[in-house]
Amino acid sequence: MERLGSVVVGNVNVERLGSEVRGSGVIERLGIEEKPR
Asked: Could you tell me the superkingdom of the organism this chain comes from (predicted)?
């Protein structure tokens, strides 16, 4: 589990997206809806 932005994600999304989400604000969108990929 890693804290990205202000959202805590404990799913595989974090491992798959890795640091790409960190630099982007996509993590906030992923928290609401599943990753587009």
From this structure: Bacteria
H or E element in which residue 9 lies: strand 7-9
Q: Which residues span the domain enclosing 7?
A: 2-32
CB atoms within 10 A of CB 22: 15
Provide the residue-wise pLDDT of the chain in tens; the chain has 37 residues.
555 555 555 555 556 656 565 555 655 666 655 555 5
- Amino acid code (one letter) for 15: E
Amino acid making up residue 29: R
Please give the tally of structural domains in the chain.
1
